[in-house]
Prior knowledge:
By secondary structure, the chain is of the alpha/beta class. The protein contains 11 helices and 21 strands. A hairpin with a 4-residue loop joins strand 12 (238-243) and strand 13 (248-251).
Amino acid sequence: MTDYDFLIIGAGTGGMAAAKRAAEYSAKVGIVEKEKVGGTCLNRGCTPKKLMVYAADFALQEPLATSFGWQECQRKIDWSLMMQNIHQRLDSLSNSFKETFQEKGIDLIYGDAEFVDHRTVKVKDRKISADKILVAVGGHPLKPDIPGKDLAITSRQMFQLDKIPQKLAIVGGGYIGVEFSSMMQAFGSEVVFMDTDGLILSGFDSDLRKTVQQGLVARGIEFIGETTAEKIEQVGDRLQLHLSSDRNITVDQVLLATGRAPNTKSLNLDKAGIEAGEKGEIKVDKYCRTHNQHIYAVGDCIDRVPLTPVAKAEALAVVETLYGKNPQYIDYTYVTSAVFSRPEAATVGLSETEARDKYGDEVKCYCDRLTPMFYSLADRANQEKVTIKIVVVGESEKVVGAHMVGEHAADMIQCLGVAVRKGITKQDLDDSFGIHPTVGEEFMTLS
Length: 447
C-alpha cells in the first residue's frame, strides 16, 4: 500500500497547481519542498522582479511630469524599505498557499527528495511511496566556468542586495539580463551589459530585439556586443571584469545572467528509471510522462518552454490525464511571453525569421514604429518609440505572429494572443474597431 495517490516534488507554480487540482479529484496528495512554498517565480523570480520594475517606473516617469506642468521635486529610493516591503508581500503570499494546502488536505513535507526506486522517494529519514509522482523541481541560474565566477552573483542574489551598486556589469543579454539592466539603471546604477551576439534577446523577433536595445542605449545603458566574460578578479573593494574584446571593466557588482539548468542533480533519477539530457532536463512525452510510466515531470526541469504559465498548464494537464479521465497535452505553438524592461516587449507566435523558415515566400510582415502620446510632450519623444508588428501567411493573411515593444506591450499581446491562437487574419484586425487614442488601435490600422 502506498502513502499517497499523488506525490509532487516541488511546491512552485506547477507543483502547487497540480496539488490543488488533484485534491479536488479526492486524491490523497503530498507535496515536497526544500525551500519556501511558491518556488522560483514567487520567491526569487517573476513576482519580486515585477514589483521592482514597478518601483523603478517611478524614477523613469518623474522627469516626464514637468512636461505635463508638474513642478520639479527631489525624491530618492529607500532601497532597504522597498526590499522589506517586497519580501513581506512574498511571505504573505507563501503563507496563503500553505493555508490552502491545509484547507484541501494536502500534506506539505519539507526537505530534499531523492528517488529510492520507481515509486518511492526519500525525504530526510522518511521513505514515501506513491502511486503517481510528479517532478516539478524547477531550475537554477548557471554561472559560466570562468576564473573568479564566485565573486559574481546571479539573479537569485539580486533580490538580496543590501544596497544599489554604484556600477553594475551584467553578463548575458537574455530577458533576465535585459530586465535587470533596465530597472537597476532606473534605480541609479551605472549599468553596462554584454552578450555574445550583437543583438540582445536571442530567439525573439529581430525588430523587437533592435527596438529594445535602442531604447536601453538611449537611456544611457552601455551595451557591449559580440564579447564574452573571461575572468573576474577582486581589485580592492571592487571587481574587475575581463572581456574577450580586450576590455577590462571595474564595477561594484557583476551579475551573471547566462542561463539556467534543471534542479535534478540530487534526485537520483536513474533509480527511478527516468531518462535525462545533458543538462539534467527530464525527458518526457507529449503528456509530460517520463520513461517510468508512474512518474511525470513539468516546468523548468523538462525541455519545453520555461515559463510560469506553461508550467501551470502542463501540471493541470497531467492531473486531468491521471484523475479527470481526460488525457490532455499542451500545444506550445502560440505561447505568449514578455520582457519587462523599459521599453517593454511582448510576443506571441512566430518571429519573422521562424515564419520564413517554415512558410518561405508565403510570409508577409506589417510593421510600424511610432511615438506614443504619453511621451509626445517630453523632450525625449524621439527616443521613446513603440514598435508593433504582425507576421501573416498565405492569401488569407492568417496571423501567425504578433510582436510589440512599448508601454503595456505585455497586456496587449496577452489579449491578442487569444485571437492569434483562434486563427485570425489581417482582415479581421482591419475590420475591428480600435479605442482612440491608444497604442493598441495601431494593430487595427497597420498597412
